[in-house]
Amino acid sequence: MTTIEFEAVPAVEARPRTPGLVVMKFGGTSVGDTEKLKRVAARLVAAHDDGAKVVAVLSAMGKTTDELIRLAHEVSSNPHPREYDMLVSTGERISNALCAMAIHDLGHEAVSFTGSQAGIVTDDSHTKAKIVEVRAQRIHGALDENRIVLVAGFQGVSTATQDVTTLGRGGSDTTAVALAAALGADACEIFTDVAGVFTADPRIVPGALKLNSVTYEEMLEMSASGAKVMALRSIEVARSYGVKLRVRSTFVDGEGTWIGEEDDVVLEKAIISGVTHDTSEAKVTIVGVPDRPGIAAKVFRELAGAAVNIDMIVQNVSQDGAATISFTLPKTDVPIAEPILDRLREELGANRVEHDPDVAKISLIGAGMKSHPGVAADMFDALAEAGINIEIISTSSIRVSCVIRASQVERAVEVVHARFQSFAEERVNG
User: Fold this and answer.
1) Who is most buried in 1, 64, 339, 376, counting CB within 10 A?
2) Which residues span the domain enclosing 180?
3) What is the radius of gyration, based on Cα positions, of the chain?
4) Straight-line distance from the first to the last Cα atom of the chain, in angstroms, rounded to the nearest whole number
5) Does 111 reside within a domain?
């Protein structure tokens, strides 16, 4: 029986494998109503009949979680974190229990587990808990009995408090990948409402191409830059444990997109994997900050202490002993950050703090950027020709991101994707 401690990652080679085991995760749109749940049940039975050992992770049905969150805020302006987790964790339990019932009606044995019953142990941070361990004994026992196992995603239990915890948005992806790692699965398949990972959002760019494969590194950048296909934390776990991932459609047969280690590194070509966008962030600017050592450290240490996630940062050149610091953060973190920043403004003697929610981030991602210096310039040219101003720039070895006006983001995605269309085709077609 396998227990993996996620805080201390062991060597991948040391993990026992379970040949024939597949973890299959289905998102909210895939289980949006009872008819869709029955189709998912039939898919799980078909995989079992083909000889696989099947563990499924189901999200809550459709917009169930959103409805539960709405109810929480109707009765409380500031829902208690423990009770909030007790509430929002129920959606996944419903969908998994219903799917298990459907599997029984198809003549197969199935058992549904809550996160805690499945052995998913987390820290004690409500609403944003991290998985620290998977104790998979009950899952192994059910598989040994030839049952299909269903696990409620998005949730676990804190051994420190014995309370139910939730993992935050995208937590079902993280649940599935963590289980695949702990169980030594052959693969973790993520079923969703799209056919795979595309070079851009097909709703904005109808000519976007489906990628046959992407690397962990590329998918990490894409997820961090706004791609909604998989949660960032799940990719981090997959990379750490060497879990092979596949994103595919629940509704249409197809190979989907494989995510894993890069098999054929081509450094001489500007391999572009995609253009992503993110409208979930806001920009904050602190004007007139004293330009002396330790100021930036104090600002961002205070925000980190409140679990505020900072993305892009830029500090302008000092004028008359004062500088301006701008950064982006999730819009959901703004209410947490505002009182901290107001206090810091007074303590530091800064002039003012400005909040701008009407921004968006566009990113160009590709492993070939490492050796192709013209990629960033081409992206900036495409935006300039479309009359789109860049407010902040951030880069990594395989990513270039720009903060722009939110009203221009769809146009930005179109023009940047068009500029790199030939590279995208080369990536897909070889």
Assistant:
1) 64
2) 17-193
3) 23
4) 42
5) yes
Whether 46 is covered by a domain: the verdict is yes
Q: With respect to residue 415, please indicate whether it lies within any of the assigned structural domains.
A: no
Report how many domains make up the chain: 1
Asked if residue 318 has pLDDT above 80, the reply is no
User: Which residues contact residue 197 at a Cβ distance below 8 angstroms, ignoring those fewer than 6 apart?
Assistant: 210, 211, 214, 219, 222, 227, 229, 247, 257, 259, 274
**β-strands 120-122, 131-135 pairing:** antiparallel
What is the reported pTM? 0.85
Instruction: Compute φ and ψ for 305, nearest 5 degrees.
Output: -65, -25
pLDDT in tens, 191-248: 998 899 999 999 899 999 999 989 999 999 999 898 888 888 999 999 999 999 999 9
**How much helix, strand and coil, in percent to the nearest 5, is found in the chain?**
40, 25, 35
Distances (CA, A) of 82 to 94, 153, 162, 166: 20, 18, 11, 10
Find the helix packing angle between 137-144 and 171-183, rounded to 10°.
70
Assign residue 25 the CATH number of its domain.
3.40.1160.10
Q: Nearest-5° angle of CA 258, CA 264, CA 266?
A: 120
In whole angstroms, give the CA distance from residue 115 to residue 155.
5
